[in-house]
Design goal:
The protein has 14 helices and 2 strands. With about 325 residues, the chain is mainly α. It has a two-stranded antiparallel sheet with strand order 1-2. The relative contact order is 0.19.
Length: about 325
């Protein structure tokens, strides 16, 4: 009896530690404590606000990536898709002289159009999401380079700088917008019909089809939403800098995937936590800032980030093993 009780307590402890939110929160606290001991100036309002504000741009993009991964696919175009959206918003403002609302609409529509193209090719034409989104990544990169022609696109005429510059509690309004999006998306994924069908599609495609779920429309919607969030990420970058640049989204897709994996989104699809993704983004940026403050070699920073991604995949594998034991 004692052995059984100890085993149950051990399994419960493992389940708590492997919960996405807890599994991410603990490393964040460890990093903060360790870095503060090594450099007491770290735990200050300046650095904490820098981490949180820096999390905005990759954070909103990671939410869209999370939806696609949960559907059982991948989107490698979100980085340059977001850049293209920012460039289009800047182009509409600086060259075409349009006011704020049409410029924002054009930026969002650009990202959603890229997502729609990705979704149609994957869900209707049955193409691999890896190949499809790599192709659209190159297309977006070529388009934004052609449109920008190496020149930053200013958005000063839109008078939207207050979103990034006016900072209540030392934080950008863009951060509060991201937090609101996370809360809404968590409710969508956990409680809505779409969220249930999304997780079912990524978890077991055959079972989802037998249950009458139109997996083609679910995947299409996931890609369109990923395009929307990629556009918001690119536009947030543009609002923060006051200009749109073709280099803003370079490599963002891999950072988004890393944040999703760290946050507990199963790379096999079907499972994950939106709050976990948000914390995964915070952990990613906390690690990045800690390594810079501790003057760790740049190449070693990349090594450590890669090791954390591998660890995240291993934790996901362990989580699945425990869940499998529970069902036996």
């Amino acid at each position: 009896m004692a052995n059984n009780e100890n085993r149950k307590k051990l399994n419960l402890s493992w389940r708590i530690l492997l919960t996405p939110e807890v599994g991410v929160l603990i490393p964040i606290l460890v990093l903060v404590i360790f870095t503060t001991i090594m450099n007491p100036s770290f735990l200050t309002r300046r650095y904490i606000s820098s981490i949180l504000i820096g999390s905005v741009f990759i954070g909103v993009c990671s939410l869209g990536e999370a939806l696609v991964i949960m559907s059982g696919e991948i989107d490698l175009s979100v980085g340059f898709s977001g850049s293209l959206s920012g460039i289009m918003m800047g182009k509409a403002a600086m060259t075409w002289g349009l006011p704020a609302f049409p410029c924002v609409f054009i930026g969002i529509a650009t990202g959603m159009l890229v997502g729609l193209i990705n979704g149609l090719m994957v869900s209707r034409l049955k193409l691999s999401s890896w190949i499809t989104t790599i192709a659209t990544q190159f297309i977006c990169q070529g388009l934004l380079t052609t449109i920008a022609q190496g020149n930053p696109q200013s958005i000063q005429s839109l008078n939207l700088s207050w979103l990034a510059q006016n900072r209540p509690l030392g934080l950008s309004w863009l951060l509060f917008i991201l937090i609101a999006i996370i809360i809404i998306m968590d409710q969508v994924v956990r409680r809505s019909k779409f969220g249930f069908q999304l997780r079912a599609t990524g978890g077991n495609r055959e079972a989802a089809e037998m249950a009458g779920i139109d997996i083609r429309n679910i995947k299409l919607m996931a890609f369109v939403l990923a395009g929307l969030f990629a556009a918001l990420g690119g536009m947030f970058d543009t609002l923060n800098m006051g200009t749109a640049s073709e280099n803003f989204g370079a490599g963002r897709e891999f950072r988004a995937i890393t944040c999703c994996a760290i946050g507990g989104i199963s790379l096999a699809g079907g499972e994950g936590s939106i709050y976990g993704v948000g914390l995964g983004v915070v952990l990613f940026h906390t690690l990045w800032y800690c390594l810079r403050i501790l003057n760790v070699n740049t190449n070693m920073q990349l090594v450590l980030i890669g090791m954390i991604l591998i660890l995240s995949v291993l934790l996901d594998f362990q989580r699945k093993r425990i869940e499998a034991r529970k069902t036996v």
